[in-house]
Amino acid sequence: MPQLSPTLGYLFLAFFLLSACAFAFIYSKSSGPVNKNKKMSKKTKSHIYF
C-alpha cells in the first residue's frame, strides 16, 4: 500500500491547515469583544496579534 500513504499525508496536512485556520478565526472572533471590555485592551491586543 505505497500509494495510500502519500494521499493520507496530504489529506492530514489539509485537514490540519483547515482546523488551524478555523481555530485562529474563532479565537480572534471570540477574544475580540472580551479584550475591549478589559482595562488593558492595548496590551492584550498587541499580544494576540503577535
UniProtKB/TrEMBL annotation:
> Which keywords accompany this UniProt record?
Mitochondrion, Signal
Tell me where the signal peptide lies: 1-22
Top-level lineage group: Eukaryota
Q: What is this protein called?
A: ATP synthase subunit 8
Where does this protein come from, organism-wise? Pedipes pedipes
